[in-house]
Amino acid sequence: MKACSQCQRLFPLEARFCPIDGTGLRPSADVPIDGDPEDLRVGAHMCGDRYEIRRKVADGGMGRVYQALDRHEQRSVAIKVLHPEVAMDDIALERFKREFELSARLPHDHIVEVLAFEETEDESFAMVMEYLEGEELRSLMQREKLVRPERVIRILSQLAIGLREPHALKVVHRDIKPDNIFLCGTEDGPLVKLLDFGSVRDNSLGAKKLTVIGTTIGSPFYMSPEQAQGLEDLDHRADVWSIAAIAYEALTGKVPFYGVTGPQILLAILGKEPVPPSVVTNAEGFAGVKVPEAVDDVIADALSKNPAIRVGSVAELADRLGHAYGLVGDHSTWAAISETAVGNAVTAAAPKVAAAAHSSRSLGTAAARGDAFAGASSSRTLPSTRGGDAPFSGRGSSRDPFADDDYVMGLPDRGSSMTKYVVLGGVALLVLAGVAVMVFR
């Protein structure tokens, strides 16, 4: 491995310059590590002298993440070390161990590979993972506000492939959010890696349950109604909801359900309907990036409050979204071809998609006119609950709900106001009970 003397990042032997600061690279053994007086692990060796800690990557609520050199395999790895107080929590430690055990059973084309579970010399525990170069989907969304449809389609297609095996094993991720979707840069477009299986619900026969019934775990903006209530019968369709909420936000720049606090968000999820994506982009007037009306039904079905009538799988969601943009084929095809190829197909299909929408609107107008003669109103209005009290509120509002929600390699900043585990407890459940009856009506 080679290393950068400025930032301490590790690179393959064929690399010549650091892309971050332009510094020429040298063999890692020739690059001394700058120590950190506030973190004695930096520059030290861990786990029986196997891992050389090069730099701190992130400080999260559960632990601290480092980039390290695996001296046995001569590869760059990420090491997540639990904070001392977390390591003393039996449930948190059990979740940490289970994340490793589960990851060892899963394919890693689109799921971060977990390599080892280790006990550290300073009486904590560490998880060793492949080190990923790229960025979280959250960073991309914050930078660009809107994500191009071909990229959204490819991301969902790869997530469908990545979640196929966990869902077949009756494992629910339960914390899918833009911060846990990592985009590795390739010539064909981002390669998706799903992070952080520490909050999973394992519904397989005989699996040990680590969550008390009624406890709410996850990130509020992407939490399904059944997850918001802490229901016992939660299954893979909760992940479908989360991914649909992410697709909505990526395509429109707005979250489908908005609130300033966790309880407000969950109340919106339980009691309101989102503004159709095409209405959001039409209202905002984003030139050339309006969402086709065909997408509205896809998102509405995927965000159904009743899981029994919700889109049944991530694969179905990805397929329907691609077809709404006029694509031919399915998610397996779109995940395998380049983003440019998908984008060209979306552009080529756009006139046909627009014509179909125009034809549908014309038929709707004719029907409305017929109703008008029978004394019915011909106006087309949205239910008053759509989008909440501020119809198009969300990201970009005066208060940025993600300002303190910074995650790297799936770990939140320590002390974040939007922590990984949103445990609302009895008080919030009492608040939610007032609207819970609306969920499965």
Description:
By secondary structure, the chain is α+β, with helices and mostly antiparallel strands. It folds into 2 domains: 33-130, Phosphorylase Kinase, domain 1 (2-Layer Sandwich), CATH 3.30.200.20; 134-355 and 381-436, Transferase(Phosphotransferase) domain 1 (Transferase(Phosphotransferase), domain 1), CATH 1.10.510.10. 36% of the residues lie in helices and 15% in strands. It contains 13 helices and 16 strands. A 6-stranded antiparallel beta sheet has the order 4-5-6-7-9-8. 43% of the residues are buried.
Question: How many domains would you count in the coordinates?
Answer: 2
Give the overall shape: globular
* Rg on CA atoms, Å: 23 Å
What structural category arises from helix and sheet content?
alpha+beta
Order of helices and strands: EEEEEEEHHEEEHHEEEEHHHHHHHHEEH
Would you tell me the overall average pLDDT? 82
Indicate the percent of residues in helices: 25-40%
Portion of residues in beta strands equals 5-15%
CATH class of the largest domain: Mainly Alpha
Going by CATH, the architecture of the largest domain would be Orthogonal Bundle
- Side by side, the strands of the main sheet go 4-5-6-7-9-8
CATH topology of the largest domain: Transferase(Phosphotransferase), domain 1
Give me the number of helical elements. Answer: 13
Instruction: Please tally the β strands and state the result.
Output: 16
User: CATH H-level name of the largest domain... which superfamily?
Assistant: Transferase(Phosphotransferase) domain 1
Q: Could you give the distance between the termini?
A: 59 Å
Low-confidence stretches: 212-216, 372-441
Reported for the largest beta sheet, the result is: 6 strands, antiparallel
